[in-house]
Design a protein that fits this description.
Helices cover 14% and strands 49% of the residues. The protein has 1 helix and 8 strands.
Length: 138
Amino acid sequence: MKSKILITSILSILLTAACKKDTKEGNHKPETDTEAPLITFLAPDTATHYLSGSTMPISVKVEDNDEIHEIHLNVVNTSRNDSVMLHVHQHSHGQVAMLDTSFFIPDLGMHQDYELRVTASDHNSNESEKTLHKHIHM
């Protein structure tokens, strides 16, 4: 009976030590990760033109060598004092994450310029940002 308790205690200690081996201050991130996530716009593409009153699909792929933590998308109307027209936040724990949404372009009676701004960070606070510009016709 004493030998079973001793073996169970030793296994518990070894498993606990193994779980903490590659962590920094109890977090699940490797200390050596300095690589920021990679952001790729899949939609809209640069060749497609949109009109006021239409819907623009937005698809973003984010990849990281370790784990993604957060993705933020802001659709900003740069023709109107940098008004944020849409904000999407996504929390993730994978190496690859997809953010898929759409934006209805309001008819403001004039041409408009928008920026799609994506910021992504990993669990080591490495951060990257990517911007796509779109001109909207009346």
